[in-house]
């Protein structure tokens, strides 16, 4: 038990997150531990957010983001809100500056419990997504799935929110597409050398869209915050939407603002604590706290 750390099972609009407290330690959550934790229905997750000691002055923590297949991700909007809620409950602070492989993330918990994350400036250059071939206009790239003369999905917009996203625009209901079938094929398409998160978007109005996402390294999820940001900026870039849009993901609505003043993308939504326990970050062996199980915001 001595080598165990605290963790909380949380969710951001149904995106299943394990927040693991690695502060004060030099080791990292291993891919083996991630795979073990994901294999148990009690701890099955979409992402792990491992909180480490800060690496730079002025920041509150370094965060490693790990997908359920054990791979590392550069961004996780829903998981970031979960970390904010856990640390706000622990410290009473309302604002945090986090550091990830993709850069700095400014965050704030509002009085109504909603949490905003500054997801940074999106990138659109084909080399930044990255794509395997040169495309001058990433608002619409040549990529399709299904019969060549009658594709089911085609011509996605692509964007990087630190992590790679492709957004397929559809005129009809996002639920009428077999994303569980097309998602893995598109995630691993050779055009995406680092794989990609694959979303289907239906625009309802200039300020609202519906979005389903097949996540790189995690599969179908109820919510993907960075995909909502990528879809919002791609909607604005292609003239479909305004710069502030409500993105309805299967788990509920996220509000995304692509700020005019500095091009940063601000994502606002909820986070929810479910239960907590201790685990071994090397093996993934875990124990649930007997006393945990009430809902509401909790410290780790
Ligand atoms: N759920 C996340 C995105 C997680 C990362 C993604 N699977 C990747 O590998 O890029 C979110 O809320 O942004």
In short:
This protein has 300 residues and is α+β, with helices and mostly antiparallel strands. It has four helices and 20 strands. Strand 13 and strand 14 (208-215) form a beta hairpin.
Total strands: 20
Q: What is the typical, i.e. mean, pLDDT?
A: 96
* Known CATH architecture of the largest domain: Roll
End-to-end distance: 17 Å
How many helical stretches?
4
- How would you sum up the global shape? globular
Helical fraction equals: 10-25%
What string gives the helices and strands in order? EEHEEEHEEEEEEEHEEEHEEEEE
Task: Please give the domain count.
Answer: 2
Largest sheet: 18 strands, mixed
Strand proportion, as a percent range, falls in 35-45%
Region (Disordered): 277-300
Function: Catalyzes the stereoinversion of LL-2,6-diaminopimelate (L,L-DAP) to meso-diaminopimelate (meso-DAP), a precursor of L-lysine and an essential component of the bacterial peptidoglycan.
EC number: 5.1.1.7
Organism: Sinorhizobium kostiense
How does this model look, in words?
The protein is α+β, with helices and mostly antiparallel strands. The protein has two domains: 5-120 and 271-288, Diaminopimelate Epimerase, Chain A, domain 1; 144-261, Diaminopimelate Epimerase, Chain A, domain 1. It is 15% helix and 37% strand. It is built from four helices and 20 strands. It has helices spanning 31-39, 77-91, 179-187, 225-237, and strands at 5-12, 15-21, 47-52, 61-67, 72-73, 95-100, 103-109, 115-118, 144-145, 153-154, 157-160, 164-169, 197-205, 208-215, 219-221, 244-249, 252-258, 265-269, 272-279, 286-288. The chain has an 18-stranded mixed beta sheet that branches. Strands 9-10 form a two-stranded antiparallel ribbon. The longest helix is centred in the N-terminal third of the chain and has 15 residues, at 77-91. The protein is globular and about 55 Å long. It starts with a strand and ends in a 12-residue tail after the last strand. The model has no long low-confidence stretch (mean pLDDT 96). Bound molecules: ligand LBFN2T5F. The ligand N[C@@H](CCC[C@H](N)C(=O)O)C(=O)O is lined by residues 15, 46-47, 67, 73, 75-79, 163, 197, 215-218, 224-226. The site of ligand LBFN2T5F has 19 residues, from helix 2 and helix 4.
């Amino acid at each position: 038990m001595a080598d165990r750390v605290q963790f909380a099972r949380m969710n951001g609009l149904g995106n299943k997150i394990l927040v693991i407290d690695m502060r004060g330690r030099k080791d990292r959550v291993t891919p083996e531990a991630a795979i073990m934790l994901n294999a148990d229905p009690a701890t099955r997750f979409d992402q792990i957010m491992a909180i480490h000691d800060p690496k730079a002055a002025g920041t509150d923590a370094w965060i490693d983001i790990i997908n359920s297949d054990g791979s590392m991700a550069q961004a996780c909007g829903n998981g970031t809100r979960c970390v904010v809620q856990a640390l706000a409950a622990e410290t009473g602070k309302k604002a945090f500056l986090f550091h990830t492989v993709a850069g700095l993330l400014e965050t704030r918990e509002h009085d109504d419990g909603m949490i905003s994350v500054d997801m940074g400036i999106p990138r659109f250059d084909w080399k930044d997504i990255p794509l395997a071939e040169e495309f001058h206009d990433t608002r619409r790239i040549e990529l399709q799935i299904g019969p060549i003369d009658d594709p089911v999905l085609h011509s996605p917009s692509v964007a990087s929110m630190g992590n790679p996203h492709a957004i397929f625009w559809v005129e009809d209901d996002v639920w009428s597409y077999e994303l569980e079938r097309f998602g893995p094929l598109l995630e691993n398409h050779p055009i995406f050398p680092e794989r990609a998160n694959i979303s289907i978007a239906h625009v309802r109005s200039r300020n609202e869209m519906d979005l389903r996402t097949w996540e790189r390294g995690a599969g179908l999820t109820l919510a993907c915050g960075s995909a909502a940001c990528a879809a919002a900026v791609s909607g604005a870039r292609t003239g479909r939407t305004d710069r502030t849009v409500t993105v309805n993901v299967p788990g509920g609505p996220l509000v995304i603002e692509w700020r005019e003043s500095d091009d940063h993308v601000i994502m606002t939504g909820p986070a929810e604590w479910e239960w907590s326990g201790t685990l071994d970050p090397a093996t993934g062996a875990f124990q649930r706290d007997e006393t945990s199980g009430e809902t509401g915001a909790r410290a780790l």
